[in-house]
Amino acid sequence: MQWTNKRGVLLLAGALLALAGPLAATTASGAPGVSGARAVPRTAPAAPAAPTDPAEGPDPIDFAVVVDQSASLADKDLARETEAAALLVQGEISERSRAAVIGFGSSEKRGQSPVREVCQLTVADAAGRERLSDCVQELGRRDTARVGPGTDFPAAVRQAVTRLTGAAAGPGTGTGTGTGTGTGTGGAKKPGTPKVVFLLTDGKLDVADSPEYGTDRESRQSNGAKRLVEELARARAAGVQIWPLGFGGELDRAGLTAMAEGGYRGSCSEIPGSAPRMRVVDTSAEIDKALQETFAAARCARIAHGTAGKPPADLTVTIPPIATDGSLTVAKHDPKVQVTYYDPAGRKVPVRDEFDGSSFEVSGQNGPVEALRVKNPLPGLWRVHIEAPPGHGDREVAVRAIWQGRLRSAVVLDPASPRAGEQVKVEVQMQTRRGVVITDRHQLAGLSVAADLSGEGFEPVTFRLADDGKAPDAKAGDVRFTGTLTVPAGATGALELVTRMEAPGITSDRRPLHAVVAKGAPLVTAALTVDSDTVHPGATVSGTLDVTNNDSAPHTLRLGLADQTPGTELVVAPATVTAPPNGSTRIPFTVTVGKNTPYGTLGGQVTVVDTADGDRTLRGALLNVRVVEPPTWWERWWKAVAGGAVLVLLVGTFVGIRLLFRRRRRDLTGVTLELCQEGRSLDSLTVRRGQSPGGAFAFTVDEPYGAPATLRRVPGGGSSAHVLRRTGAGELLLRPRGGAQVPVRTGEPAGLGDHELVVRGGRPAPTGGRATAGRPAPSGGRDTAWFRPPRRAGGGAGRGSAGDTDAGSGRLTGTGSDGSPDASAYDGNF
Predict the structure, then answer these.
(1) CB atoms near residue 285 (< 10 Å)
(2) Pairing of strands 369-375, 325-331
(3) How far out from the chain centre does Cα 490 lie?
(4) Residue 669 burial (C-beta neighbours within 10 Å; 0-12, 13-18, 19+)
(5) Per-residue model confidence (pLDDT) at position 43
(6) DSSP string, 222-237
(7) pLDDT digit string, tens, across residues 136-161
């Protein structure tokens, strides 16, 4: 490409664009002198369609993707442009939209055209998206014999505007209905459908070698700039937006801005960012993401960027609860890459069918870009599994989701039949088509809600609703928008109320609420309240109906449910009630939640009508009920189970401690048995750990011939063994072999046949203290195995007033005042 952009050409183009605004505004509105910067209707100048019968699904748009194919683009840049164009036509969320794809360059010699329409305007339904997937690939194949190397912006804009406005529209993929709602493309679209041009380029205006613009290079550039201004004015007059996207380092940013501002300045909403604007990225590698973001802004949708990876891999992207329509686009680059889609519940979804309340449609499976269009998607994390045969998995695949929330509004008018000149309160709650009631205010960030009241005898009235907690709104942040207005005094009959919601990615279904102006004071008035509650399926919610009947006859009132969440099984009882004449009454009622009702916040409202007054609606009340999963057995009884477990643990611990304490008290470990005869110690045996199970130690006395007797432990006991036992109370008992059990005191001899047994050490007796060397133990002292009684002063053979200890006997003896042996001379020490 030859760059001939002169400063004078830019100045001329800028001046002409400045003049184009008023000219285009005059053409569009018929009123001269109206500035192009003035606020204009959000759609094309044609009258909007009546909202009395809104179609399901997102609003359609007509759009053209216009792609620069000039000589300045490298092959890789052209390939990326082609994939970016495919992402738009495959990712469109409305099956009623129409798309065209146009390549452009210049016309410099015979046989060349500045534009190349590779995809005629085609309805983006299932068949249409497959057709678009095939034809868009033609962009990647240059035809230098038919398209010149320059950059003819005027011709590109003219071709796109002509196609979008219906002039010379080519044949489509179907049968054409003329209304824009079928599969044809030949008929004119119904008024109000937005028309958008997305223009991709890496350069600036270059028609210096195009003979149709003049005889020399400079005049051609100047004339090209003038022609561009004229084409932009035509686009503005026809209601066609221009969204330029530039990439690379040789861009004319001012020229791109002029194109965005020179086309139609209306937008899909009043939300900032939805009006046409220029955008620039550094390289062609970034245009797929940038173009999808631009596309989302232009059609008031949102985009969720997912993960990327090389096959084989699992990619993920999140669709929020507020989404009602969306497309998952997979930029796989290579048609050989195979894609499988899984919903947030981990279930593989069909490529074209209905499943669990959602509708699915896959397109582009044989192209470099594939898309899954979903109606009523299950919110959450979607998984996209990618596989590729050997040699086809070297490029990174990316997944994104373009979505829109088209919300249904449940509207309560209070009073339901207002009088002319009366102030009424309007309360609005929103839910998706899947029945998800929107309760998270963060999902509705930036949302504005308005209502239009129209009817007989007055001009339409518009008023705002708010969720700010200021009267008449009851609570801020509860996602119930409230507002008031006064019914015009001239209102004479039917009323129609339509709510409008606007936020990035959110639109309303514009379903009307019909009412009738009341004539005079009503005979019957009512107040209706429904309890706010969290219940399980099968439970009931209570409500109260307060009725005042000023008539002389009773009135039969009927309770009903409106705007219910799909799939709910709600029953109101009683279905009819009687309002007694000339008085007020309070009537309780219940709403039973069916056992198969889906979990979540219930949508809809309870209504009461007067059957005696032509089924006039007296009052409505929005439901504020959340249905949750019934608790499991564990969730219901875990506190009792935990309390019982703690009690059992405490009791078990107490019993265990007592048993351990008793066992420790009965344990004979450390006790020494000393065998004596005539005051002499013959042998001793100390009980080791584990040798006294149950507090019993079995032993025997061996008397070898010609040798002193010895003590020997008898494991397991037996009838021939002596047994020393300690009770739980700490008392020592000795059962000689074949004899009766007798108590034993520590340190005192006990008879054992021809011998005596003295028990020493071990754990304390129940009333003993701790003995320490060199001093008497206090009452309740404890014997120790290592302690031996000290010798006392005096002589004799262990007898006498002074007392003595026989050498090696370990037995202390003394003499009382009468000369008899006196055990009391024992001082408690060993």
Answers:
(1) 12
(2) antiparallel
(3) 49
(4) middle
(5) 38
(6) HHHHHHHHHHHHHHHH
(7) 999 988 888 899 999 999 999 999 99
Kindly tell me the burial class for residue 595, based on how many C-beta atoms sit within 10 Å of its own C-beta (0-12, 13-18, 19 or more). exposed
> Cα–Cα distance between 453 and 702 in angstroms, integer?
118
Report, as an integer, the average pLDDT of 332-358: 94
Lowest mean pLDDT among 167-176, 524-533, 569-578: 167-176
Please state, in angstroms and rounded to a whole number, the distance separating the CA atoms of residues 601 and 625.
Answer: 6
CA 57 to chain centre: 23
DSSP state of 478: S
Element spanning 102, H or E: strand 98-104
3-class secondary-structure state, position 328: strand
CA gap 225, 17 in Å, rounded: 9
* Res 639: pLDDT: 87
620 pLDDT more than 80: yes
- Give the residue carrying structure tokens 């219906």: 166
Provide the pLDDT for residue 565.
73
DSSP string of 706-772, one letter each residue: TS--EEEE-TT--TTSEEEEE-TTS-EEEE-TTS--EEE-TTSEEEETTEEEEEEESSPPTT-B--B
The HSE-up count of residue 268 (CA atoms within 13 Å, CB side) is 29
Helix H, strand E, coil C: the string for 175-201 is CCCCCCCCCCCCCCCCCCCCEEEEEEE
Hey, is 161 helix, strand or coil? helix
Rounded distance between C-alpha atoms, residue 194 and residue 298, angstroms: 9
Name the CA radius of gyration of the chain, rounded.
49
Phi, psi of 729 (to 5 degrees): -85, 0
Q: Identify how many contiguous H helices and E strands the chain contains and give both numbers.
A: 8, 44
Above 90 in pLDDT, residue 728? no
Q: What is the 3-state secondary structure (H, E, C) of 545-607?
A: EEEEECCCCCEEEEEEEECCCCCCCEEEECCEEEECCCEEEEEEEEEEECCCCCCEECCCEEE
**Omega of the bond prior to 418 within 30 degrees of 0, cis?**
no
Closest CA to 459 of 490, 415, 486: 490
Place of tokens 């993707």: 65
Between the alpha carbon of residue 170 and those of residues 60, 166, 189, the distances in Å are: 19, 9, 14
Kind plus residue range of the DSSP H or E element containing 639: helix 633-666
Amino acid at 105: G
- Give kind and range of the element (H or E) at residue 126: helix 126-135
Contact, 695 vs 724, CB < 8 A?
A: no
For the four alpha carbons of 128, 130, 134 and 137, in that order, the dihedral sign comes to: positive
pLDDT digits (tens, 9 = 90+) for 679-700: 889 899 999 988 888 889 999 9
The model's confidence at residue 763, banded by pLDDT at 50, 70 and 90, is low
Choose among 295, 305, 198, 187: nearest CA to 244: 198
Report which residue type is found at 261.
Answer: E
What is the predicted pLDDT for the residue at 442?
79
104/785: higher pLDDT: 104
| Residue 542: strand pairing partners | 590
The span from the CA of 771 to the CA of 782, in Å, is 5
The two beta strands, 62-68 and 98-104, are parallel
The pLDDT tens digits of the residues spanning 410-439 come to: 888 888 888 899 999 999 888 887 777 777
Contacts of 511 (CB under 8 A, 6+ apart): 51, 54, 408, 409, 498
Nearest to 413 by CA among 309, 495, 294, 510: 495
The pLDDT mean for the chain works out to 81
732-760 pLDDT tens trace: 899 998 888 899 998 899 888 888 999 99
Cβ neighbours of 824 (radius 10 Å): 7
